Structures are given as structure tokens and as C-alpha cells.
Amino acid sequence: MPNKGVPVLDVKDLKTVFHTRSGEVHAVNSVSFYLRPGELLGVVGESGSGKSVTMMSLIGLLPSPPAEVRGGRVLFDGEDLLNVREERLRELRGARIGFVFQDPMTSLNPVFTVGYQIMEPLRKHMGMDKRQARVRAAELLALVGIPDADKRLSDYPHQFSGGMRQRVMIAIALACDPEVLIADEPTTALDVTIQAQILELMKDLRDKLGMAVIWITHDLGVIAGIADRVMVMYGGQVVEQAPVKELFGNPQHPYTRALLETIPSVTGERTERLHVIEGQPPILAAAPSACTFRARCVYASDRCACENPPRLTVGPAHDAACFWDPATGQPRNTEPTHTGAPNAG
Amino acid sequence: MFTYTVRRLLLAIPTLLIISLIIFLLLDLAPGDPTAQLPLTIPPEVKEKIRQSLGLGEPIHVRYFLWLKQFLVAEPLHVFDNLFGTHFADGMQRVISWQTRSPVADIVAQRLPQTLWVVGMSYVVGVLIALPIGIISAYKQYSWFDQIGTFISMLGFSVPTFFTGVLLIVIFAVNLGWFPSIYDTTHVVDSWDAFVFQVRQMIMPVMVLALYNAAQISRFMRASMLDNLGQDYVRTARAKGMSEKVVVLIHVLRNSMIPVITVIALGVPQIFGGAIITEQVFKVNGLGQLLITAIYANDIPMVQTLTFIFAVLIVLFNLIADILYGILDPRIRYD
């Protein structure tokens, strides 16, 4: 349920670089996006497109070295997260910004009880004592649909199944009622039925609690079912951004179109081979000065090799970083859009 | 856990019996003669009589079972008698050293404190040094601290104790004169000054052994910490807003200690085995030195008893290591 308002998170020109032995790798290149309160923003892209790194950069979760957030601005509730002390970041992490990670099998500490791990942020951020935290932890477990919550608090992670562990992770992320929840491929490691359960749960929780969610995935089917708005990333850049219906109905960027074509159809004639996007995603040793997708793009022209396309407005609340216009089959001529938040109101 | 422990203890009985048999057979097979060091003027018939009197005339299985009876029945009963003033063990033959003609257990009891003080202390000091070094080295991997730590560990691990021991003696006892060069076992601690002297004479042997122990354990600790620092749950802990202190010293350390505790527990029996070389260098007449002299003198009851005590300790501490493992790691359940 997207409701208009001042964005809770506003990211501008975020740049992250990894220092490796073979030189620099530019993983996030001038990424800008915003997140409105209560909105579910889907982030898609293939592995290595910078989805996770972008979100980790926001909140200082990347190990540094090798990572270095080189520039940009991350406004969260009027505060630039790239310019605050580590101590302040810690106050926000887990309290007002929650995380759910990909692999629930390894994301929980195996030697502490589930209860202890849920109670940790409660005691640190909410100043609860042990008893209050335990009561709240049991509520949280019940909220994410774990039966017999009170008893299961003293169980260890290995006594839970994968799906149950992911529920525990979600309970931890939600412990302090965050305004933003960043879910980094939360269903990738789960089998399909459990995926569906977790998706249902997340939808339900968002309706109940009203937090904004950033949902990172490479599963377009998941995005179609859950997101309000979608951001497609490639080569550490946002290449297309649109409301979910618009994106699936009217994709503008060749990469998005190619991604959508890779989804096998369950109806109609079975294709001989699954569609793939030929080629490999780029590894950027420098900030891109040309379109990063041109090597794999069938519509690439000379301009793509000498100029990195800016994000151009192509429809209402819809922008794409491409010179080619699928409607006309010709290069388009539009002014660059503002890529940040729209004005409130 | 309890039934597991009981089962393991019961299983230890046949294990130890087999070990004792192997030790006994090996010592019996080894060349050597307890009368070999007696003067050549003693005629062979007399030597033979001496051998007979030591019980060597009996067949091997008789000797083995006699030793078992002495060690497992007579010795514990003696201890019991001494504690409670009873007379159960009267007339029972104890395990007697061929060198000194006194009960082996009494000699061991005399030597044990020296070994425990010096070697045990060095182990404690070594562990206490090693754990923080391992933790910091891993947390600040490839920093100057880690590089120096790695270098010193390599030195401590590869330079033998007979070299570091002598080096310390040359520097601190001969040139600087800070510490005595040999350990005085007869020293009695009855005043503050005596205590200070005891500490001073302990410092060098303890340091030599501690360096070696710390080198080993700090590497284990570092490796284990590194294994865990990259785990996903560490990222989760950070994402929860936990401070670095909590992340490292609670989340990572608890996991990292699991293998390290096992290594530390398995190292404890070595303390009782003494540090033969270091004890020689500093003239600490502990168990290591006792074992060496007993081997030279073909004192089979002494060697047999000491070796068997080490075997018992090794079996025991293996069990303790396994139990600690089960306590520290909730994923391991033995029942």
C-alpha cells in the first residue's frame, strides 16, 4: 500500500568501490533512489549487479577495507547516514532499519538460543530488561507464525527448519518496529512452498506494521506479486525504475525486456531452450563512461559506447537509462530526469 | 549427556586395560636388564637371584596380573588407609621402584608438585597470553600486531626449548643476574621473601614453556576466530546494531572457543608428562626427569606406572574435551 509522503529513505549518487588485489572494482555507481513510508520497493538484477552492495553501503555493513563508500548522500529521516558516527549507525541498525538476509541456515548464531538473539536488539535499543524482552520476543515469534512461541524461545537455531529460521530472522528484524526493512533475497535459499509462506507473511506484516520494505531478489515472479515499485539494477547502476504494473507491462530498458523474456511461460508452446541473456555482466574497474549493457544489447548504437545514458523519464514515475525507445525503435530525445524523490504532497 | 559420560567412562576401562597390556609387553620386549648397572664383580648366579627376587622369573602373564593387582588394588587401598587410618592394605605388595626400593607412588607424589607448579603454571600463562593474542590477531588480520604475533609464534613454535632455555639463562641469570639459573626443588615457601624467591626461580622455566604453549594455542585461536569472523551470523549481529565488542567477544568468541577449548583440554595431560627437556635445562626434578632416569636405569615398574598414569590422563582429558565440546556447542548432543 504505497502512500504518498516524504520519503523515509532518500539516496543520491551513492558510489561504492572495492579495493582488490587486481585494482578497484566499482560496485555501485551513482545509484539514486528513494523509498516512501509503507512502500515495498523491489530491487532486481542478476548476481553481481550491485543490489546487495548498495543496500549494505547505506548502513555501513560492508567490511572496510576492502569496501569504500566513496560518495553520495543517504538521507534517513533528515540525517545523512554517510556522515554520521559509527555509534549513531549502530543505534539505527536493528532499531529503525531492520535486515533480513539470504541464507537463514547460517545467518543465526548457532550457539545462542533463538530467544537470546531476538532479545539482544530489544535490550540494546528499547532498553528492556530481561523479562520484558522475553515477553516481547515471544510476541514477535507468534507474530511471524511460529507455534508455541514461548517454549521455542529457548531452542537453538539448529532445532528450526530453514523456513522457520527465516521467520526468526524476520522476527529479529522487526523486533524494534523499524521504519525500513531491507530484505536481501530472503526467499532465495528456501524451497518454493516455504517461499510462498514467507511472501504471504511479509505481505501480511507490512499491512499490519506499515513499514517500508526494500526487497532484493532476482526472482521477477516474486517481485510481480509483492512489490509496489521496482528498480532494475545492472552494472552497479539503476537502469530502470517504475511502478510494478508499468514495469511489467511496458518495460523500456533492453535489459529489463531481456530479463522478462527469460521467464519461461507455463502456458502455450514449450520453447526448445530457455531464453538467456547472452554474455557476462561487466566487472567495472572504473566508473562507467559508457553504457555497461551495450556489449549484450541488440539495440546498441555508437552513442552507447561513448556516453553513459542518464536516467530518462519515459512515463509517469517511470525512468530508464537508455537512449533507445522501444515504441519507435529510434533513439529517444528526452531530458535527464531528476532521480531523487518527488516533492511531497 | 550424563548417560553418554557414563558410557564413555565404562568404555574407558577396557581401553585402559589394553593400553596397560601394550605398555607392559613393549617394556618386556625392550632390551635391558635391571641388574646391568651392577658391578661386574657380582657373579652371574647372584645377579640371577636378584632377578628372581624382582619377580622376573615368573611367566609374563603372571607378572602382568601381579602388576595390575598392585596398581589397581594395593595402591588405592594404601591411599585409603593413609586417609582414614584403616588397615586394608596391610601386607599387600605395592609397586616398588627397582632403583630406590621405595614405592613408585610415593616418588611420584614427591615429584608431582614441581611439575604442576612449573609446567602447569606455564600452561596457564601460555593460554592466558595466547587467547587475547589470537583474538586481536584475527580481528586485525595483517595489521602490524598480527604480523609481529605471527612472527613470534613461529619463533616460539620452531625454536626448541633447550635453546630458548639456555638463551634465557645466559641473558637473565649469567649476564643480568636477575634470576637463579637452576630451580631449587627443596625451597620451602614460608615467608614473603621465600615466596618472592619461588616466583623468581619459576619465571624462566615458566616463560620458556609458556612461549611454546602460547605460540601453538594462539595460532589455533587466530585460525578459529578468522573462520568465524566471516560467517553470516556476524553480519546479522552487526545488522542488529550490536557494538563491535559484543560482536567479537560474545558472538564470534563463543563459536571460536569450541575447537580451541578442545585443543587446550587435550594439552593438559602433557603437563603431567612434564616437559622433559625444560626440566633438564633448569634442573626441575619433576615427572619428566623422573621418567627419563627410570628409563635409563631399566626401572620397569616406574616406567610402567608413569606411562600408564599418562595414558589414564589422556583418556580422561579426551573425555573431558568431548564433554566440553557438547556443552559449548548446542548442536552436539550425545544422547
Automatic annotation (TrEMBL), chain A:
<keyword id="KW-0472">Membrane</keyword>
<dbReference type="GO" id="GO:0015833">
    <property type="term" value="P:peptide transport"/>
</dbReference>
<keyword id="KW-0067">ATP-binding</keyword>
<dbReference type="InterPro" id="IPR050388">
    <property type="entry name" value="ABC_Ni/Peptide_Import"/>
</dbReference>
<dbReference type="InterPro" id="IPR017871">
    <property type="entry name" value="ABC_transporter-like_CS"/>
</dbReference>
<dbReference type="InterPro" id="IPR013563">
    <property type="entry name" value="Oligopep_ABC_C"/>
</dbReference>
<keyword id="KW-1003">Cell membrane</keyword>
<keyword id="KW-0547">Nucleotide-binding</keyword>
<comment type="similarity">
    <text>Belongs to the ABC transporter superfamily.</text>
</comment>
<dbReference type="GO" id="GO:0016887">
    <property type="term" value="F:ATP hydrolysis activity"/>
</dbReference>
<dbReference type="Pfam" id="PF08352">
    <property type="entry name" value="oligo_HPY"/>
</dbReference>
<dbReference type="InterPro" id="IPR027417">
    <property type="entry name" value="P-loop_NTPase"/>
</dbReference>
<keyword id="KW-0813">Transport</keyword>
<feature type="region of interest" description="Disordered">
    <location>
        <begin position="325"/>
        <end position="345"/>
    </location>
</feature>
<dbReference type="Pfam" id="PF00005">
    <property type="entry name" value="ABC_tran"/>
</dbReference>
<dbReference type="InterPro" id="IPR003439">
    <property type="entry name" value="ABC_transporter-like_ATP-bd"/>
</dbReference>
<dbReference type="GO" id="GO:0005886">
    <property type="term" value="C:plasma membrane"/>
</dbReference>
<protein>
    <submittedName>
        <fullName>Oligopeptide transport ATP-binding protein OppD</fullName>
    </submittedName>
</protein>
<dbReference type="GO" id="GO:0055085">
    <property type="term" value="P:transmembrane transport"/>
</dbReference>
<dbReference type="InterPro" id="IPR003593">
    <property type="entry name" value="AAA+_ATPase"/>
</dbReference>
<feature type="domain" description="ABC transporter">
    <location>
        <begin position="9"/>
        <end position="260"/>
    </location>
</feature>
<dbReference type="GO" id="GO:0005524">
    <property type="term" value="F:ATP binding"/>
</dbReference>
From TrEMBL, chain B:
<feature type="transmembrane region" description="Helical">
    <location>
        <begin position="151"/>
        <end position="174"/>
    </location>
</feature>
<dbReference type="GO" id="GO:0055085">
    <property type="term" value="P:transmembrane transport"/>
</dbReference>
<keyword id="KW-1133">Transmembrane helix</keyword>
<dbReference type="Pfam" id="PF00528">
    <property type="entry name" value="BPD_transp_1"/>
</dbReference>
<comment type="similarity">
    <text>Belongs to the binding-protein-dependent transport system permease family.</text>
</comment>
<feature type="transmembrane region" description="Helical">
    <location>
        <begin position="306"/>
        <end position="328"/>
    </location>
</feature>
<feature type="transmembrane region" description="Helical">
    <location>
        <begin position="194"/>
        <end position="215"/>
    </location>
</feature>
<feature type="domain" description="ABC transmembrane type-1">
    <location>
        <begin position="112"/>
        <end position="321"/>
    </location>
</feature>
<keyword id="KW-0472">Membrane</keyword>
<feature type="transmembrane region" description="Helical">
    <location>
        <begin position="257"/>
        <end position="277"/>
    </location>
</feature>
<protein>
    <submittedName>
        <fullName>Glutathione transport system permease protein GsiC</fullName>
    </submittedName>
</protein>
<dbReference type="InterPro" id="IPR035906">
    <property type="entry name" value="MetI-like_sf"/>
</dbReference>
<keyword id="KW-0812">Transmembrane</keyword>
<feature type="transmembrane region" description="Helical">
    <location>
        <begin position="116"/>
        <end position="139"/>
    </location>
</feature>
<dbReference type="Pfam" id="PF19300">
    <property type="entry name" value="BPD_transp_1_N"/>
</dbReference>
<keyword id="KW-0813">Transport</keyword>
<dbReference type="InterPro" id="IPR045621">
    <property type="entry name" value="BPD_transp_1_N"/>
</dbReference>
<dbReference type="InterPro" id="IPR000515">
    <property type="entry name" value="MetI-like"/>
</dbReference>
<dbReference type="GO" id="GO:0005886">
    <property type="term" value="C:plasma membrane"/>
</dbReference>
<keyword id="KW-1003">Cell membrane</keyword>
